[in-house]
Design goal:
Helix content is 26%, strand content 16%. It is α/β, with parallel strands linked by helices and 246 residues long. The chain has a single domain, classed as CBS-domain. Strands 1, 2, 3, 4, 5, 6, 7, 8 and 9 form a 9-stranded mixed β-sheet that branches. α1 links the parallel β3 and β4. α7 runs parallel beside α8. It is globular, with a radius of gyration of 21 Å.
């Protein structure tokens, strides 16, 4: 019997209680890994292996390297995993709590992201810092209050701590749609949400494995919305809702 898809008006699956717990970055090969469903062509499983046909370029024919493809375009009813950054396939971009907000901003620019995982030396996630955190009013207020330069404000002072980050279970995400993720982010008032695999850690452990992350900016990009010069969160939500007909 097919699994019923919840509508965007229904409450998202209950979040795992993880206050006070650290979450652990995804490391390849550790724990049980759930494969995100993907379409595969029909494979021959019983026939003997055979070499594929090969050819050489004809005279006058040249080869050109494939350019990176654009992010997968999605719709409201597309699987939620289509807009999830899967950390088993993409290396997490990180920074340290002792890094300055200016250093964090430069890392975001260099890596083309708007959020960084803040980790300690052992790889445990201490929190998340976003572009709004490092470019907003908070660093300015801290610098003025302490009588220091903006460059002296540290990531650890403006990040969202790990125990305050909303997270979803991967097993739940596999049953939901892009529209459901947008509704979840809207209700929580956040631009990002973690996807965790509780089953990949010891049940008695206080750590959870971060399998992926959802980003409001990434969702907007994959819906085909034009990039904003600034980053107005309310406007982004409004444009996404208009695009998905919410």
């Amino acid at each position: 019997m097919p699994t019923r898809k919840p509508t965007s008006r229904e409450e998202p699956a209950a979040e795992t209680k993880h206050s006070g717990e650290f979450v652990e970055r995804m490391f390849s090969g550790i724990g049980r890994v759930y494969e995100v469903p993907a379409a595969h062509p029909q494979m021959r499983t019983e026939e003997p292996y055979r070499p594929l046909r090969q050819s050489k370029a004809r005279p006058g024919v040249m080869y050109r390297l494939q350019s990176p493809t654009a992010a997968l375009r999605v719709q409201a009813n597309s699987p939620a995993t289509d807009v999830m950054t899967d950390l088993s396939k993409v290396k997490a971009v990180t920074t340290a709590a002792a890094a300055s907000v200016d250093e964090a901003h430069q890392t975001m620019i260099a890596r083309g992201v708007r959020a960084l995982f803040v980790v300690d030396e052992s790889g445990l996630v201490l929190g998340i810092v976003t572009a709004n955190d490092v470019l907003g009013e908070r660093p300015i207020q801290l610098a003025q209050g302490r009588g220091v330069r903006h460059v002296d404000v540290l990531v650890g002072e403006v990040m969202t701590p790990a125990d305050l980050i909303e997270a979803m279970e991967l097993q739940d995400v596999l049953q939901f749609r892009v529209g459901d993720i947008v509704e979840t982010l809207k209700r929580s008032g956040r631009q990002h949400a973690l996807v965790i695999e509780s089953g990949s850690a010891d049940a008695t452990s206080a750590t959870r494995t971060v399998r992926g992350i959802f980003s409001l900016t990434q969702i907007a990009r994959q819906l085909g919305l034009p990039a904003q010069v600034g980053h107005d969160v309310a406007r982004t939500f409004a444009e996404i809702e208009a695009a998905i007909g919410a």
